[in-house]
Write a structure and sequence with these properties.
- There is one protein chain.
- By secondary structure, the chain is of the alpha/beta class.
- It folds into two domains: about 150 residues, ornithine cyclodeaminase, domain 1; about 170 residues, NAD(P)-binding Rossmann-like Domain (Rossmann fold, 3-Layer(aba) Sandwich).
- It has eleven helices and 17 strands.
- Strands 9-8-7-10-12-16-14-15 form an eight-stranded parallel sheet. The protein has a seven-stranded mixed sheet with strand order 2-3-4-5-6-1-17.
- Bound molecules: nicotinamide-adenine-dinucleotide.
- Keywords: Lyase, NAD.
- Pfam families: OCD_Mu_crystall.
Length: about 350
């Protein structure tokens, strides 16, 4: 623990520090380096303790805990998903996370993860597309132009070379915002008036809408041969984006089947419908895209190892940038078993200060 030297403090990365960290590293470099760490961790999949995330569902949303460990480090993320939140000025998705030392159980990092989740989701999507999309892919439709959308666009540009975007959102103001935010980055951008228009002629389709229901953002006739679908928005029981017939025509790739079968697009299919795990593709144990005409589908729900990788990456940047503060989070009595005595000494010190002041 080079910089976490005090036994009572934990390095804390606030939203302000996260933004400065991302900008100091550079958004494209951050996405590329993060993608490498995510891929590196997928390649050592067997070393991780894995469990489907623990979800607490309510009528308007979900709160989830996402833990994992590689035996040396332990990480978890707290994340919510509440599609109606934006109407009250809140984010649909907000998150924070912790990375700890398995050897002594002490937290080594507490970080905001709302921005980090957008970055890690986009980096994961783009890494996966490198294995599954056609090598000559340059154009992408983005359906759903909310908080995640620009991050997806930037990751696909810096990792996959995507430079042509077709945008669609049921709220035209969201598409206008997305286009404005991506100006000057070398994209050719068209705002479309329907999802059908947006997917015409593109090699990659990203669906990243928020709606707490089984929606049909894409119907079967909208997906032609050779397309790669990056389905990000369907990530809860009863919350999907694709018509079932698309799934039946696609080769489906998932993060962790026990979680995706409950939360992903494949909740619409039989429990034993064949899927390929990403780690197998990344280690060469299974094929990614094998033909020009194949339809590939990344049924993304977001898995704990991706957040673990993101926390690990952020921590690796702290010492050089100093973009964190020390949070007084851990009790540190002079003698470890004298926790109560520490409270008494605090009381005595408060009393003597009060006596001095009177
Ligand atoms: N797979 C993952 O790892 C992962 C990670 C983060 C977020 N997500 C999911 O991605 C989705 C988007 O998240 P966000 O933070 O961008 O949400 P957001 O609320 O900021 O944006 C969602 C956008 O989708 C649009 N939309 C809703 N229904 C639509 C439809 N039928 N057609 C076109 N557009 C539609 C909304 O108008 C809005 O602009 C959420 O469902 C979230 O749960 C998944």
């Amino acid at each position: 623990m080079t910089f976490n030297q005090h036994l009572n403090t934990v390095p804390f990365v606030s939203v302000d520090h996260m933004m400065k960290l991302v900008l100091t590293v550079g958004i494209d470099t951050f996405l590329r380096e993060l993608a490498e760490v995510i891929e590196e961790d997928f390649r050592r999949w067997e070393t991780f303790d894995k469990t489907p995330r623990i979800a607490a569902h309510s009528p308007d949303g979900v709160i989830e805990l996402m833990p994992t460990s590689d035996g040396t480090l332990y990480g978890f993320k707290y994340v919510n998903g509440h599609p109606k939140n934006t109407r009250q000025g809140r984010q649909t998705v907000t998150a924070f996370g912790v990375l700890s030392d398995v050897g002594n159980g002490y937290p080594m990092l507490l970080s905001e993860m709302t921005i980090l989740t957008a970055l890690r989701t986009a980096a994961t999507s783009a890494v996966v597309a490198r294995y599954l999309a056609r090598k000559d892919a340059r154009s992408m439709a983005i359906i759903g132009n909310g908080a995640q959308s620009e991050f997806q666009a930037r990751a696909f540009k810096s990792i996959m070379g995507i430079d042509t975007l077709k945008l669609f959102d049921i709220d035209p103001a969201a598409s206008a915002k997305c286009q404005r935010n991506l100006e000057g980055l070398g994209f050719s951008i068209e705002i479309c008036d329907s999802a059908e228009r947006a997917v015409e002629g593109v090699e990659i389709i990203t669906t990243v809408t928020a709606d707490k229901q089984c929606a049909t953002i894409l119907t079967d006739n909208m997906v032609g041969p050779g397309v790669h679908i990056n389905a990000v928005g369907g990530d809860c029981p009863g919350k999907t984006e694709l018509h079932r017939n698309i799934l039946l025509r696609s080769d489906i790739f998932v993060e962790y089947p026990p979680q995706t079968r409950v939360e992903g697009e494949i909740q619409q299919l039989a429990k034993d419908h064949p899927v390929t795990e990403l780690w197998q593709v990344m280690t060469g144990a299974a094929d990614g895209r094998t033909s020009e005409g194949q339809i590939t589908l990344f049924d993304s729900v977001g898995f704990a190892t991706e957040d673990f990788s993101a926390l690990r990456y952020v921590r690796s940047k702290l010492e050089a940038t100093g973009l964190y503060e020390e949070l007084d989070l851990l009790a540190d009595p002079d003698e470890p078993r004298d926790l109560y005595g520490m409270l008494l000494r605090c009381e005595a010190s408060l009393k003597s200060r009060a006596a001095l002041a009177s």
